[in-house]
Amino acid sequence: MNRLLNIADEARLTFANLADTASDLAVPNLRLGVTGLARAGKTVFITALVHNLIHGGRLPVFNAAAGGRLTRAFLQPQPDDAVPRFDYEAHVAALLEDRLWPRSTRQVSELRLTIEYESASYLARKLGPGKLNVDLIDYPGEWLLDLPLLKRSYAEFSAEALKRARAANRSEIAAPFLAELSGIDPDGPEIETTAQTLSETFKAYLAACRQDSHALSMLPPGRFLMPGDLDGSPALTFAPLDIPFDAAPARTGTFRAMMERRYEAYKTHVIRPFFRDHFARLDRQIVLVDVLHALNAGPDALTDLQVALGEVMTSFRPGRKSWLASIVNRRIDRILFAATKADHLHREDHDRLQAILRKLVATGMEHAQFKGAEVDVLALAAVRATREATVKHGGQELPAILGTPLPGEGVDGERYDGKSEIAMFPGDLPEDPESVFQTVESISPNSVEVDSSLQFLRFRPPRLDRTAEGMKLSLPHIRLDRAIEFLIGDRLR
């Protein structure tokens, strides 16, 4: 299949774009997609962005706020009746009252933030105050990895999935699934119980790949890891089979025909609606990446992450902003890749973290820029959970971070109660980003590489400071203002 959408879907998308354009005539609208693979911090990013804009956060690089042109920001009713609302209030309560991180993204959700501002242009100010609706679209990055499947046959999917499963870094994890697969005759009769068993072992293999010790990212089909209300449906009950890449069509009634039919149903009922109704309507996109998680798992995890991010970039429809063209064929004109949890490192290492992420997405960046989109790379912490300090260790002064580990977190055999603040030396990232793809040794806390404790130690959200009047300040961050400026700043001029 050469097209991501069929003619009927393209027509529906065009009508949706026409409706969006009509509403823009009253108040301009920008649809911002927020995604990332597991544990990247999507929910935290949206919550922190909205909280800082509504409560007048410290945003010195966000020009509209720094220049005093931001009049106010407030939430509006949910714009799409069929899409769940992003539960902003519950996430703020978790961060501020319980000092716990919100639950991870499990489905598509949406939130409308309206920003009122004064234009930087004298002539525009004479026309009155400006207003911009920002629709924040939150969706799991694992679903993004499904989009390339729209262009792949079942035989192609099977060949690629089994090649990954049999690779040196996965074969042991995939052993139960591969053992189950070895007893399957693709040309044998279709048996439901066999399909269920094979599919469950395949899903268990994908889930094991995602565990902290492996931290692998290339795990399509993405909905297998978060099935939601489709759990147990035939569209989610299939697995790859050992068949040639260019195999002839399956005979009716065979096990292979059954698997192929369900794979096509997955594309029809799961992937295509997500692409048509959500992804293809985005104007801007931020992709959050937990680089530190992959670093701690080693070169295999980093290489796998690099492949996954490359697949992500092939799914985007980048291009220059054009009012007329966007009515028929909407394009993403700005993409930001952000390495999250920068507060786990001292600021001296933030440039190195950005350099590693830049290498991970280099090929995709070139493609998007060639198509006319603006692309940037950034190290950030949407909510800063630590502070910086200096500690003495072995007669040396080392840059340290101070924070309160979550209850039960531990390092070097010590467990924390969630109440005590600790100081730790986070280690130094290498100057050469190439080196992190080559070393296979575990990194000790005294190394000049990455501290292996970062893989396990998670800090509680910070206790917010209060003003003299007793009011809580906005959530602290690292470079959230730079991200906001890149993503929406040009629309507030």
From TrEMBL:
InterPro entries: YcjX-like. It comes from the Bacteria. This is YcjX family protein. It comes from Roseibium polysiphoniae.
